[in-house]
Design a protein that fits this description.
The protein has 470 residues and is mainly beta. The chain contains five helices and 40 strands. It has two domains: 302 residues, Pectate Lyase C-like (3 Solenoid); 50 residues, Type 1 dockerin domain (Orthogonal Bundle), CATH 1.10.1330. 11% of the residues lie in helices and 29% in strands.
């Protein structure tokens, strides 16, 4: 009995120690009082690599705002640890923009090569002016070699690789890249923004813009890879082939709810260049104002194939070069002006706003509120009827929008909020549905004030919209 109690006490001690260690935080501040520092809040390390080296798995490295350059602040190597390396507030764009890793051309931002998995996270950092200067000329900003970290809320900009992946390169890796901006990067040959070989990355909610490749894939270039790209904006990228995206060699690229605009190829495939028996699926997306000598939207060659469904494609099938007859033109496609909030193909990309115009509510990131337009885009409620629209705010027509904001809380609205059955009129059918939810404590479409209850405040809004007709 005594032995059992001792073992129980030891187990509890180890459990407490483990829980305590999981919350260990190491601090970095380029302006810390001492060099190198100790990593405490009062005495932070001055160099990021010192903090990483002192960390154990499950620790968090927090980096104060500032510009981190010189030895110990580039070619950062987590060395296989499951740690979080982040700014003080990864969800604050201003803090992200001011927490800067700047190798100044001397190396990469991060080098993952020890089997890091999704539990190794970098978040809320800006990586700029990085360069792949080692004997492996891949991945200017970030290089993932047989590693699959999570990269979220980061900016990778103005970085270069002599061959592959100016912003980021995936080599037999499957990173998860979420809500990042990949901009102004370049590669000597392939993948100005991101490139990959034998990889299966997830790229979600990212903006891939103003990147350049010397040969193929201004935004993306994939070889023997199966990337899944969701809710991304791919715009103003350039290459000889595949201004936006190049994919080849029997991989499969999946593009869902993406906006692919104003990408340019000197020769083939303004938006997408697909070759060497590769395949791509494009769903709920907008391909508009892309340019190339052949196939301004899509170029297919060498027994490659592409399936397009529920997409807005400028000039339709006529904008697809398809000598091998690999195009599968599915249901729901159209060719109509998407009515972006602000878009001039020949104007300044910095002022473009690719949200869809709506008379019923469009999110304006400049004023951080919902505004109403004169026009309503035909791309609203035009996505696949089987797609999950639950994240779109009500009224959402109970259908997903096309484009990068479809299926998100920034999807442009459509219809009257009191038209619960989306019939185009607010009448007794809607009143019956409202009555069935009366006094319920929950978030639902009948909760017009979105406060978690259907009550008199919601009734007042319903009354204001009584007998509305579209």
């Amino acid at each position: 009995m005594y032995k059992t109690k001792v073992l129980l006490v030891i187990a509890i001690i180890f459990s407490i120690a483990s829980v305590s260690h999981a919350f260990n935080v190491i601090y970095v501040d380029v302006n810390g009082p001492n060099d190198p520092g100790t990593g405490s809040y009062e005495d932070p390390f001055r160099r990021i690599q010192d903090a990483i080296d002192s960390a154990d798995s499950n620790d968090t490295v927090i980096i104060a705002e500032g510009i981190y350059t010189g030895n110990g602040n580039y070619d950062l190597d987590p060395n296989g640890k499951s740690i979080i390396i982040r700014s003080t507030e990864p969800n604050d764009p201003e803090i992200v923009a001011n927490t800067i890793i700047d190798p100044n051309g001397a190396g990469r931002g991060f080098y993952f090569h020890s089997g890091e998995d999704a539990n190794c996270v970098i978040a809320g950092l800006t990586i700029r002016n990085a360069y792949a200067v080692t004997d492996v000329p891949y991945g200017g900003g970030v290089y993932c070699f047989y590693s699959s970290p999570t990269i979220r809320n980061c900016i990778i900009m103005n970085s270069h690789a002599p061959v592959f992946g100016g912003g980021l390169y995936c080599d037999f890796s499957s990173p998860r890249i979420v809500n990042c901006i990949i901009t102004g990067n370049s590669a000597g040959y392939y993948g100005g923004g991101i490139s990959g070989y034998g990889s299966n990355p997830e790229i979600i909610g990212c903006t891939i813009t103003d990147n350049t490749a010397g040969l193929e894939g201004g935004g993306f270039e994939w070889v023997l890879s199966n990337p899944v790209i969701i809710n991304c904006i791919i715009t103003n990228n350039k290459a000889i082939n595949g201004g936006g995206i190049s994919c080849c060699s029997q991989g499969k690229t999946s593009l869902v709810n993406c906006t692919i605009t104003r990408n340019r190829a000197t020769n083939f495939g303004g938006a997408l260049y697909c070759q060497d028996e590769d395949s791509a699926t494009i769903e709920n997306s907008i391909l508009w104002a892309n340019e190339a000598s052949q196939g301004p939207q899509i170029y297919l060659s060498d027994n490659s194939s592409t399936s397009v469904r529920y997409c807005d494609v400028q000039n339709g099938q006529a904008a697809v070069y398809d000598p091998c007859e690999g195009l599968i033109w599915g249901s729901g496609n159209m060719d109509t002006d998407p009515c972006f909030a602000s878009f001039n193909p020949d104007g300044d990309p910095n002022v473009w706003d690719l949200h869809l115009q709506s008379a019923y509510g469009r999110w304006d990131p400049n004023v951080q509120s919902w505004v109403n337009d004169v026009n309503t885009s035909d791309c609203i409620d035009a996505g696949d009827p089987n797609s999950d629209y639950a994240s779109e705010l009500w009224p959402n027509g109970k259908l997903m929008n096309m484009g990068a904001y479809g299926g998100t809380n920034q999807a442009s609205m459509n219809g009257n909020p009191a038209d619960f059955d989306i019939s185009g009129a607010v009448n007794f059918v809607d009143f019956a549905e409202f009555s069935n939810k009366w006094s319920i404590q929950e978030f639902c479409i009948e909760d017009l004030t979105n406060d978690g209850a259907v009550d008199l405040a919601d009734l007042a809004i319903f009354a204001e919209n009584w007998l509305w007709q579209q």
